[in-house]
Amino acid sequence: MQEEQLHKLFHLCKVLLDEDRLRILGILAGRAAHVKELAVQLNQKEAIVSRHLARLLEAGLVRADSDVEGVYRLDLELVQSMKKDLFARERTDGPTSGYESSADKVLSNFLDGERLIRIPSNHTKRMVILEWLAGKFEVGSTYPERAVNEILKRHHPDYASLRRALVDHGLMQRESGLYWRVVEEKP
Prior knowledge:
- The protein has two domains: 3-77, Arc Repressor Mutant, subunit A (Orthogonal Bundle), CATH 1.10.10.10; 100-181, no CATH class.
- Helix 6 crosses helix 7.
- The protein is α+β, with helices and mostly antiparallel strands.
- The chain contains nine helices and eight strands.
- The strands form three sheets. The protein has a three-stranded antiparallel beta sheet with strand order 1-3-2. A three-stranded antiparallel beta sheet has the order 6-8-7.
């Protein structure tokens, strides 16, 4: 890794190592938001939120809305670009250079970042997506239905169908309103 790239990565890590900035990014990952709204959600003063936003702007992770003053959004283009750069570097550095698994291909075709573009109708492709979604839940943890809905909503608006599919395909189990991830044991 070149010195300049290493410096950028170091700076990005410093920006991301703040709980409030991560919470801001989490909110902005779902939608654009005004500084005042962010301040209320974070239970912080607007000035503090503005300073966090300035750091995120400087790092290129968020951008100000050009139409409405004080409204910010996650810079998805930059995030996608960074993601492609990292995965391209990983592919060229790793032993499987030039190889993309069929699961990776399905994910790249059906995902826009962390958002599911559409639910595949093909069973094999749908299973790849469902396994990816199941990976969003920690093994050994239980989740009330509301928490499952919130996690799935981050990825697709039809969270109810996805929740049902995860249970129907044996990737999660449900009992008394609680859900947990099921991990298939490999022989």
